[in-house]
């Protein structure tokens, strides 16, 4: 076998022979080839990811573990991470999405946490295409089938439709869990003499070399890739969760790691490398589904529902007993050693002998970056083409278009209430979850702004990040940190790498300016097919902490007679907005520049507003602009509004422009003075009043609330 | 009143039920693993919780109906003590023949999780005697197989015997029936009891509307209080 067949370049192969001091044998070459793949090594993005701020007052565990962990107080940690499962979901939507959910849940278990909540970022093609409907149906059913059975509630998410995802849908699965701080697990605490134990499913031929599959563009005939797709079994996963948590509770586990990409190889080599020891693995001890599997197949298999536990020898017996109680397969397959060698034995013969460091030290790649030549065209926008003759009609279109309408057809297929801790679930702008046995709450927001990242990667990514944070602050939450999934095209072309680099710069600058550490994440490259490529799609999940769940500003709670306020600039930018993109057929124009001072001022006042409970209801202005935010609020509250704001630039800009620190609030008249005092020093405008059954905007539009509700429900 | 919650492999509402009962009633709740053959604690109320027992392989609830603990569950019911099956637990009760009928796939062929309104049809049993007959309660649903089915003759008998305890309803008009069933359940049946009134099965989850500050509503608390009051008045 040659180095090219395992995906290595000539210079990488040369580096391996230098590090080894000899030529690798065939198995060794396979092992290094996979560990040095983009999917496992992040070799193209590591230099970029280093620019993220990683420290913060709440961070207990940053990047480098299976998931980040932040401190929720009162002895609770919160482990969270988002991960892509794009390529598998494009080929086998149901199984691809299901195993995406299963995989991210195991990352959370590996931190010792009980998987407590999930969210999903879904990017589908043109909503009118049969192909999109089929893919979406399979993906949603796959997420539901797995998550519902495992019993982890889906508390929110994001669904975005655009033809850019026709052939390359994105599935970004987020999971999080609460963990007692004294029960946190780690992949860095194995000691020489400890046993390596495989718990869960037997190892089969499914998903072999999925890691290198994900490091290429999708083939035209992706069906040929089917053997690389894994099959999920949520029943096994549920038992795995309960078994691991019981073992951790009894202090039976020294160290643990989930098995994701590159299965046994990556989990065992990472745990040895991070713990500063070596490992001997005895292949014949690994429980197999098919007896005739070759060593490389066994090491690269991505069979689902497996965990690698590191167990002290004297604790093996109780570990086996617990596994038996749950009906799980369990086998001691190796031993941690003093020397820092990764050694594979099969029936006594030494089949591979590598320094553990080699597997985790793929040389970094620095791809050249160059601004795309068509950037001036992406940014060219003729505002006169955006004029609206019928603002009422435009508003109902904003509410009824695939990206604007209510997504209950999707989220009602997910269990959003199991585990009894969802305070605000799907359909609300921010998810709110009870911290176990406390009055505290965790707030989560998920955002992506593909249009804006396409026309201006830096500002688009900054707007994505700040939008996610504004959603937290509005509820009254303090920023805990964020996790991100970077979905991009090939890094090998300078114009595409430029988008990635600029997006990461936008995220890093925003996070640094606004005290939001990056605690975990995932990169998915090569999201393109022969027919096209996706928009640059960084997806963010931001997490926040509320000390008292009774002091949260919620949405959809506007009351009759409330004053309606807008905070922040009245108008943002129509460029690359939902309105503009629909009107022009594609996103055009550069979005707003980030203004971190304004964001900080917004943060301070939004949190104060919540703590003082000065507003009945609030909502960040996001996709579809001010008019869409007001209409959504009116629909959710079941109450009409009379708005009197006059346009600055144009009616379209007033109604539909996006970007910047802006929100709407509904305030009871007796609280108005307090509210206005809190927002002193920040642009604040009284926009109107809530009441009645109509949605009226002085001199602009007047629509019955029932019409808006119909549009939002997709009945139009 | 002592409660036992049976935990099958794949159950996932077991801890939720424990929380709902213990927070509302402040009474002890034991978790009993499916491999047990007896209830060690002589419970007054046994609950088969929601979830996907044995991965719902074969049919929902079919394998759990043959689990080692089921013998003890049958004896508990035969002794006239309270046995409650929620969602997957209801499916286990029909699969084991402790309640008639079957739960088929929803007419939408999808999983449905949402708030759901029910009319209390019957208060002559050991669970709902403290609720208002004809009143509307909101307990959320979350299931893929919730279409209650029984052949026409038996269905008539079940109705004539007054064994329908909960029926899907419209919260505004108070009407109940099949057209309000999100899953296509015959006659809009959401929950039924046995002739003696000590075995109740329902698809909606009262435990999900018990903790008032959560997103499932707050009508469930009265259900647990009703059971406790019935126990206090009539004993086990």
UniProtKB/TrEMBL annotation, chain B:
**Classification via CDD domains:** GATase1_FGAR_AT
Q: Where in the cell is it found?
A: Cytoplasm
Q: List, alphabetically, the GO terms of the cellular component aspect.
A: cytoplasm
- EC number(s) reported in the record: 6.3.5.3, 3.5.1.2
| Pathway assigned to this chain's UniProt record | Purine metabolism; IMP biosynthesis via de novo pathway; 5-amino-1-(5-phospho-D-ribosyl)imidazole from N(2)-formyl-N(1)-(5-phospho-D-ribosyl)glycinamide: step 1/2
One annotated GO molecular function: ATP binding
Q: Which UniProt keywords apply?
A: ATP-binding, Cytoplasm, Glutamine amidotransferase, Hydrolase, Ligase, Nucleotide-binding, Purine biosynthesis
One example of a Gene Ontology biological process annotation: 'de novo' IMP biosynthetic process
According to UniProt, the reaction catalysed is:
L-glutamine + H2O = L-glutamate + NH4(+); N(2)-formyl-N(1)-(5-phospho-beta-D-ribosyl)glycinamide + L-glutamine + ATP + H2O = 2-formamido-N(1)-(5-O-phospho-beta-D-ribosyl)acetamidine + L-glutamate + ADP + phosphate + H(+)
Q: Name one Pfam family in it.
A: GATase_5
Catalytic residues (positions): 87, 205, 207
Instruction: Describe the function of this protein.
Output: Part of the phosphoribosylformylglycinamidine synthase complex involved in the purines biosynthetic pathway. Catalyzes the ATP-dependent conversion of formylglycinamide ribonucleotide (FGAR) and glutamine to yield formylglycinamidine ribonucleotide (FGAM) and glutamate. The FGAM synthase complex is composed of three subunits. PurQ produces an ammonia molecule by converting glutamine to glutamate. PurL transfers the ammonia molecule to FGAR to form FGAM in an ATP-dependent manner.
* Quaternary state and interactors: Part of the FGAM synthase complex composed of 1 PurL, 1 PurQ and 2 PurS subunits.
PANTHER family, per database record: PHOSPHORIBOSYLFORMYLGLYCINAMIDINE SYNTHASE SUBUNIT PURQ
Q: What is the designated name of this protein?
A: Phosphoribosylformylglycinamidine synthase subunit PurQ
């Amino acid at each position: 076998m040659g180095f090219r067949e395992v995906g290595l370049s000539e210079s990488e192969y040369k580096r391996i022979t230098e590090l080894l001091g000899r030529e690798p044998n065939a198995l060794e070459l396979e092992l290094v080839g996979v560990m040095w793949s983009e999917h496992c090594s992040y070799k193209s993005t590591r230099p970029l990811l280093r620019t993220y701020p990683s420290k913060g007052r709440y961070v207990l565990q940053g990047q480098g573990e299976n998931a980040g962990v932040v401190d929720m107080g009162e002895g609770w940690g919160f482990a969270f991470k988002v991960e892509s499962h794009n390529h598998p979901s494009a080929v086998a939507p149901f199984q691809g999405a299901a195993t995406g959910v299963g995989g991210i849940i195991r990352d959370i278990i590996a931190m010792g946490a009980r998987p407590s909540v999930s969210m999903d970022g879904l990017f589908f093609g043109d909503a009118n295409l049969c192909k999109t409907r089929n893919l979406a149906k399979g993906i949603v059913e796959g997420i539901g089938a797995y998550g519902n059975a495992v019993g982890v509630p889906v508390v929110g998410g994001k669904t975005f439709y655009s033809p850019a995802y026709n052939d390359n849908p994105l599935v970004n699965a987020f999971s999080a869990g609460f963990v007692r701080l004294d029960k946190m697990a780690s992949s860095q605490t194995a000691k020489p003499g400890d046993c390596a134990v495989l718990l869960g499913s037997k190892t089969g031929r499914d998903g072999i070399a999925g890691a290198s599959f994900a490091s290429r563009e999708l083939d035209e005939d992706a069906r040929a890739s089917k053997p690389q797709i894994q099959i999920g079994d949520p029943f096994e996963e549920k038992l795995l969760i309960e078994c691991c948590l019981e073992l951790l509770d009894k202090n039976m586990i020294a160290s643990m790691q989930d098995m994701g990409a590159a299965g046994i190889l990556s989990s065992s080599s990472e745990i040895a490398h991070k713990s500063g020891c070596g490992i001997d693995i005895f292949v014949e001890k690994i429980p197999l589904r098919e007896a005739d599997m070759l060593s490389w197949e066994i090491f690269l298999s991505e069979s689902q529902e497996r965990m690698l536990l590191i167990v002290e020898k004297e604790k093996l017996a109780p570990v086996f007993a617990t596994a038996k109680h749950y009906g799980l397969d369990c086998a001691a397959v190796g031993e941690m050693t003093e020397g820092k060698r990764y050694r594979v034995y099969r029936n006594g013969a030494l089949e591979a002998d590598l320094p553990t460091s080699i597997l985790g030290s793929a040389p970094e790649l620095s791809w050249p970056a160059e601004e795309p030549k068509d950037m001036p065209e992406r940014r060219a926008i003729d505002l006169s083409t955006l004029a609206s003759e019928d603002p009422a009609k435009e508003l109902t279109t904003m509410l009824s278009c695939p990206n604007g309408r209510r997504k209950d057809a999707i989220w009602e297929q997910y269990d959003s209430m199991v585990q009894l801790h969802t305070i605000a679930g799907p359909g609300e702008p921010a998810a709110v979850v009870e911290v176990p046995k406390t009055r505290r709450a965790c707030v989560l927001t998920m955002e992506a702004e593909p249009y804006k990242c396409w026309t201006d990667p830096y500002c688009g990514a900054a707007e994505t990040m700040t939008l996610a944070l504004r959603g937290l602050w509005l509820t009254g939450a303090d920023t805990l940190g964020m996790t991100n999934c970077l979905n991009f095209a090939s890094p090998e072309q300078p114009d595409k790498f430029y988008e990635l680099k600029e997006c990461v710069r936008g995220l890093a600058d925003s996070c640094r300016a606004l005290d939001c550490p990056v605690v975990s994440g995932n990169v998915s490259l090569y999201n393109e097919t022969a027919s096209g490529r996706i928009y640059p799609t960084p997806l963010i999940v931001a997490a926040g902490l509320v000390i008292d769940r009774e002091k949260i500003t919620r949405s959809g709670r506007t009351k009759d007679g409330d004053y309606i306020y807008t905070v922040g600039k009245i108008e943002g930018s129509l460029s690359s907005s939902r309105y503009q993109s629909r009107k022009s057929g594609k996103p055009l124009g550069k979005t707003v520049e980030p203004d971190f001072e304004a964001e900080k001022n917004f943060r301070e006042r939004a949190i104060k507003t919540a703590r003082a409970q000065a507003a009945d209801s609030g909502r960040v202005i996001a996709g579809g602009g001010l008019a869409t935010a007001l209409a959504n609020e009116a629909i959710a509250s079941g109450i009409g509004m009379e708005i009197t704001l006059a346009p600055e630039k144009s009616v379209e800009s007033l109604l539909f422009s996006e970007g910047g620190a802006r929100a709407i609030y509904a305030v009871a008249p007796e609280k108005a003075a307090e509210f206005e005092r809190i927002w002193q020093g920040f642009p604040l405008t009284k926009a109107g009043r809530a009441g009645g059954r109509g949605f009226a905007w002085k001199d602009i539009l007047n629509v019955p609330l029932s019409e808006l509700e119909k549009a939002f429900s997709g009945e139009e | 009143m002592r409660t036992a919650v049976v935990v099958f492999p794949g159950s996932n509402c077991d801890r939720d039920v424990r929380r709902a009962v213990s927070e509302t009633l402040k009474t002890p709740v034991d978790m009993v693993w499916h491999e047990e053959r007896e209830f060690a604690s002589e419970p007054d109320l046994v609950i088969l919780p929601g979830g996907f027992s044995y991965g719902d392989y074969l049919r929902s609830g079919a394998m759990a109906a043959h689990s080692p603990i089921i013998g003890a569950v049958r004896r508990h019911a035969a002794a006239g003590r309270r046995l409650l099956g929620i969602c997957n637990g209801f499916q286990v009760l029909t699969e084991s023949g402790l309640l008639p009928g079957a739960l088929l796939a929803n007419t939408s062929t999808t999983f449905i999780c949402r708030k759901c309104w029910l009319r209390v049809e019957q208060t002559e049993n050991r669970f709902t005697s403290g609720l208002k007959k004809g009143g509307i309660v909101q307990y959320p649903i979350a299931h893929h197989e919730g279409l209650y089915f029984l052949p026409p003759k038996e269905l008539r008998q079940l109705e004539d015997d007054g064994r329908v305890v909960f029926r899907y309803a419209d919260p505004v008009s108070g009407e109940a029936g099949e057209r309000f069933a999100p899953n296509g359940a015959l006659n809009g049946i959401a929950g039924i009891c046995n002739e003696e009134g000590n075995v109740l099965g329902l698809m909606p989850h009262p435990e999900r509307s018990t903790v008032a500050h959560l997103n499932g509503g707050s009508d469930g608390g009265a259900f647990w209080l009703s059971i406790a009051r019935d126990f206090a008045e009539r004993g086990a």
